[in-house]
Amino acid sequence: MTTISPGGHIGILGDGQLGRMMAIAAAEMGYFVHIFGPEEDSPAAQVSHRSTVASYSDQDALTAFAKRVDVVTLEFENIPTDTVEFLSKIVPVRPGAKVLEITQDRLLEKSFINNIGIGTANFANVESIDELVHAVKQIKTPAILKTRRLGYDGKGQVKITGASNLDKVWAEMKDTPSILEGLVKFRMEISVIVARNPAGETAAFCPVENRHKNHILDITFAPADIPDWLAEKAVEMAKKIAAKIELVGLIAVEMFVTQDDQILVNELAPRPHNSGHWTIEGCATSQFRQAIRAVCGLPLGLPARHSNAVMKNLIGDDVETWGALLEDAENSLHLYGKKEAREGRKMGHVTKLIPLSKKPKT
Ligand code: AMP
Question: What pLDDT, in 10s, does the model give residues 147-199?
């Protein structure tokens, strides 16, 4: 079990805002960060000691990167597992290829979750029109057809109702391996972020409520307004997932709370998560510092919050409101250094702390 002490070099695969905030946390703790990603002058590279701009399949670049760092982590779960396996021969990669293999594929992910005794929406594998017809009979409508791989923020998803033309739907999926999921009538979407270090120690942030707009996270309320017993259950589930998947790092577990107070897991993300940005201001240890502690093999920090919080994403043109946001002295504004405010692009976020005695949602 390797411990990487402050002064060490941490490699991060991926160059977006999560890498940026991890790199800032690592620098605060005395580490040097080396970003590996495809983009020139990326959000993460702007704040890091060193960066390599290359594709994830460039073996020469990967070898040079691996030789310069003491541990590699990631800010993006769709890094090819071949890349992670290649790097693992030279340097520890945390989390490793096994975690990515499961979390990159919705079928493997949901099967894994069910196999450890945790509920999900009903689902069926779909690889042909015949399987789709069969799956619709089994799962029933309304349902959602999702590509097994590479879907995020609602991309690669089609809602299926009794009126859907399945031939047309399947033609649009272009034979991409998919799963059909029953539509869950949830009363709330929540997430729990849990860290696990190489010694098997875990620490979880409180469950938070997530509201989406156009399939993209819009607002997080910390904590979620659910009874204590349900919050404890959600945390236990997330810790069980982290332990059973043998995680080293951070994992965000997205869950549905149903009308009758069941918790069903929707998705896993083995990295810091947008719903944990509020922890920068709201907790004794932020999710980014916790990720660095976990991957460096350090004792975990206290995840307890000292305040409640509301975090709002700034998507696309929202970023232009930065001036107005700064007029409110209680706002903590974070901008990611992205030059172009394209539609649907996460440009920044703003967090407001609220006393523990008040609910974050009014
Ligand atoms: P995902 O890409 O799986 O995270 O889904 C994006 C969003 O779509 C979720 O946050 C939910 O709001 C919604 N969604 C996904 N799957 C389901 C489901 N089985 N039932 C109801 N809503 C869902």
Answer: 999 866 566 789 999 888 999 999 988 889 999 999 999 999 999 999 999 99
Q: What is the CA radius of gyration of the chain?
A: 20
- Which of 181, 266, 267, 273 most suits a substitution to test ligand 1, by most atoms within 8 Å of the C-beta? 266
pLDDT at 362: 62
Pick the CATH number of 122-182 from 3.40.50.720, 3.30.1490.20, 3.40.50.410, 3.90.1150.10: 3.30.1490.20
C-beta neighbour count of 324 within 10 angstroms: 9
- Cα separation, 209 vs 173, in Å, equals 31
Q: What's the pTM?
A: 0.96
Quote the CA–CA distance of 331 and 310 in Å, as a whole number.
10
Q: How close is the Cα of 51 to the center of ligand 1, in Å?
A: 35
Residue 289 CA, ligand 1 centroid: distance in Å: 29
* Atom 18 of ligand 1: nearest residue by CA position: 183
Q: Which atom of ligand 1 is nearest to the CA of 184?
A: 20
Residue 2 has pLDDT above 90, yes or no: no
Best CATH choice for the domain 9-93 from the list 3.40.50.10330, 3.40.50.20, 3.30.420.40, 3.40.50.10160: 3.40.50.20
Residue 39: strand pairing partners: none
